[in-house]
Amino acid sequence: MLPRPIYRLAQVSRQIIPQARLIQPPHFTRFNSTSYTRGFATMAPIPKTMKAARVNKQGGVEELEVVEIPVPTPKPEEIVIKTEWAGVNFIDTYFRGGVYPRQTPFTLGQEAAGTIVALPSSADVLDSNDYKIRGFSEGLKVAALASGGFAEYVAVPWTHVQTLPEGADTRQGAVSLLQGLTALTFVKEAYPIKKGDWILIHAAAGGVGLLLVQLASQFGATVIGTTSSQAKAEIAKKAGATHIINYTESSVPDEVLKLTNGRGVEAIFDGVGASTWEDNFTSIRRKGTIVSFGNASGVVPPFSVLKLGPKNIKVCRPVVNNYITEAAEFHEYASELFDLIKNGKLACAVHSEYPFTTEGMRQTHVDITGRGTSGKLVVKIA
């Protein structure tokens, strides 16, 4: 258990598009007694077709459309979820734009939250103890890592489905799951943060950045965050950042070295990529670790391993899925994540909610790449 609670983040009160309705940050401590997570619903028949956000060919936002397609046929080990909410992640723009090549057409999305409408058909799965202890049943509210999450129905391996705590709704699940797992696994495994560490977090007011700031500060680190505006600086400070550097006004490595008396930081968490890469080698201290996990400003350029020698630097490129490949790994981290949120130790800020339309989906990509957002973008599917 982490040592102390933090201030709940304030929501950025900005209207994104006319159809979007800004929503409050998630609350786990109050809930409607008529909508318990473990309540059971009467399941309607699964239709033959559904709406899904499809990428026709990799390219600009104009290639993203919400269209009607067949409901997926689940594999024997898969659970079918009727999606209510789906989270927007920067990696969605990589798949749409072609940074990560993929055969087209495909349904976009990495995570979904909703209600179970069908369980696995595999007898081996249903009889396994790992499956039984999850307590899955039709009508249960869950969140899942779901490829193709921007769809009215998703078929997901049971190993990557998590029951939501009582009092949590599916919006909360979609807001917190993927970014929360990313931040939690990175601070525990990519670079295990220790009390007394100095940590630099780029884009500290972004979705993952805010979670990294909260976790790092609660582990006892001194956090330096980078932002592009005073408004974002205030949000990062409320999350627990000790120092903020506005990278549009100051040299980040110069300021880092001033703050650390010339030593640099023990670790850098960098989801920005190309524009911050070279400066990281100045900001990091001897025997430090650079955790590179995003390409928001472009792909990190190739570099010689000889670059690591002068300070004995370690560089890692973690992918959250590879920390939670096994069912037990996913369950352990997802359970810890939702416990932290439920107990007020971690707050997932919501930037805005978007409608599940072609216009709404395209706008999510315009906004998340425009560097004007702070916190999570989420799409209301149903």
From TrEMBL:
<dbReference type="GO" id="GO:0035925">
    <property type="term" value="F:mRNA 3'-UTR AU-rich region binding"/>
</dbReference>
<feature type="domain" description="Enoyl reductase (ER)">
    <location>
        <begin position="59"/>
        <end position="379"/>
    </location>
</feature>
<keyword id="KW-0560">Oxidoreductase</keyword>
<dbReference type="InterPro" id="IPR036291">
    <property type="entry name" value="NAD(P)-bd_dom_sf"/>
</dbReference>
<dbReference type="InterPro" id="IPR013149">
    <property type="entry name" value="ADH-like_C"/>
</dbReference>
<dbReference type="InterPro" id="IPR011032">
    <property type="entry name" value="GroES-like_sf"/>
</dbReference>
<protein>
    <recommendedName>
        <fullName>Probable quinone oxidoreductase</fullName>
    </recommendedName>
</protein>
<dbReference type="GO" id="GO:0008270">
    <property type="term" value="F:zinc ion binding"/>
</dbReference>
<dbReference type="InterPro" id="IPR013154">
    <property type="entry name" value="ADH-like_N"/>
</dbReference>
<dbReference type="GO" id="GO:0005829">
    <property type="term" value="C:cytosol"/>
</dbReference>
<keyword id="KW-0521">NADP</keyword>
<dbReference type="InterPro" id="IPR020843">
    <property type="entry name" value="ER"/>
</dbReference>
<dbReference type="GO" id="GO:0003960">
    <property type="term" value="F:quinone reductase (NADPH) activity"/>
</dbReference>
<dbReference type="Pfam" id="PF08240">
    <property type="entry name" value="ADH_N"/>
</dbReference>
<dbReference type="InterPro" id="IPR047618">
    <property type="entry name" value="QOR-like"/>
</dbReference>
<dbReference type="InterPro" id="IPR002364">
    <property type="entry name" value="Quin_OxRdtase/zeta-crystal_CS"/>
</dbReference>
<dbReference type="Pfam" id="PF00107">
    <property type="entry name" value="ADH_zinc_N"/>
</dbReference>
<dbReference type="GO" id="GO:0070402">
    <property type="term" value="F:NADPH binding"/>
</dbReference>
